């Protein structure tokens, strides 16, 4: 384990204590099969997240017809997922701290399964909304972004072919895979170290690494946990100190993960938002043509192209980069509280958009997408003027750039 002298030396040198004590190239390459399995199981949560988001669009007409729902009732059903996710996101921290990472995933899986079954069996708006709220809560606990877009896209595709009740049952599959897979993967070593279970910590770390030679990494993790314990506990009000309030900014695909550190944060955001704005403009043009009976043959193609562009743009940057920036700009003692507040604001905005969408569409189909395009243009200006570039910078450098 690192000595106090080592800690002081790192602090005196101004190094970020989060940096690995052992260079990556000096570590022996171990068997990563358990890491891959653990990642796959966790990713099932994000895929389930995507299926929940994508469910309400292809099923709208059939659910409104079968259950005789009004626009307001269906708008509540579609948007209540985000309310559940807001609650789940806020609860995810305490749940993970108390039950562990596996425990949190297990709880969210069971709640999601119950929610999908409630939707499948629903005969009226109350059980329908209850099920949607439950799935939202479970997905808010998941809060991963790796395969959300895949889940959304597949739900859109198969949703046009399946009955809405059958589509709800399909949402059970990733939850079930996640629930079963949790029996085969270890608990988070860092959580075990945090709650003071050294034997379980060592066992989980060896299992993840596929090696018994984990002494150096174990020492690094314990050193990190000890450092965290010495930091003052942050509160929500600390976020609004000047040094933090100016840090408050604003879900990932494989392509994005490969290029985010090469391209930089701001360029990816700008390309992403510009693509989303273009997608909204194409969709607005399509609805305008349909409304005024202009080139009706081309209108569907424009609409599909616009939606695909929007999804592609979101996947490229806005799906992940804001969360990356958030993780980089906040000091460690405020990071947890800041992350919870940012997540809450994110879901509140998602609820507002989801709930108002059908009402806006009834007001003006093309006007709705013009409004969304304008929001994206405003976002471009925001990124250019206020978002810091964090690529290749230490936490101290980022804070200095923000505060000056």
From TrEMBL:
The keyword Transport appears for this protein: yes
Taxonomic superkingdom: Eukaryota
GO MF: sugar transmembrane transporter activity
Domain spans labelled Major facilitator superfamily (MFS) profile: 1-391
GO terms for cellular component: membrane
SUPFAM superfamilies found in the cross-reference section: MFS general substrate transporter
Biased composition (Basic and acidic residues): 1-15
PROSITE patterns: MFS (PS50850), SUGAR_TRANSPORT_1 (PS00216)
InterPro entries, per the entry: MFS_dom, MFS_ERD6/Tret1-like, MFS_sugar_transport-like, MFS_trans_sf, MFS_Trehalose_Transporter, Sugar/inositol_transpt, Sugar_transporter_CS
Annotated localization: Membrane
Membrane topology, record value: Multi-pass membrane protein
Keyword annotations from UniProtKB, A to Z: Membrane, Sugar transport, Transmembrane, Transmembrane helix, Transport
Family membership noted in the UniProt record: Belongs to the major facilitator superfamily. Phosphate:H(+) symporter (TC 2.A.1.9) family. Belongs to the major facilitator superfamily. Sugar transporter (TC 2.A.1.1) family.
PANTHER family linked to this entry: PTHR48021, SUGAR TRANSPORTER ERD6-LIKE 7 (PTHR48021:SF13)
Name this protein carries in UniProt: Sugar transporter ERD6-like 7
Organism: Artemisia annua (Sweet wormwood)
